[in-house]
Amino acid sequence: PKAVDESTDYICPRCKTGRFVRMDGPYGPYWLCNHPGCKTKCADVKDVPVFIKSDLKGDTVMASYIMFQGT
């Protein structure tokens, strides 16, 4: 996967330190936390990372109704 956008205002809800980087994967874009050791991923919906709060316990944050707000 290749980083599409390396400078975002979307703070990772899991580690609260890293920021999401928009990646271009084989199945389309997704978001990945840039903090070393954090593997949090979430879906891309209209160029914004999207997650379900209840999924924040796992390594992958799946797409659904709650959208990030930039800082």
Total number of helices: 0
Which strand order does the major sheet show? 1-2-3-4-5-6
Which range best describes the helical content: under 10%, 10-25%, 25-40%, 40-55%, 55-70% or over 70%?
Answer: under 10%
- Share of β-strand residues: 35-45%
- N-to-C order of helices and strands: EEEEEE
What integer is the average pLDDT? 75
Unreliable stretches (pLDDT < 50, length at least 5) are 62-66
Cα radius of gyration in angstroms: 11 Å
Structural shape: globular
How many β-strand runs? Answer: 6
Secondary-structure-based class equals mainly beta
Straight-line distance between termini: 26 Å
Q: Please outline the major beta sheet.
A: 6 strands, antiparallel
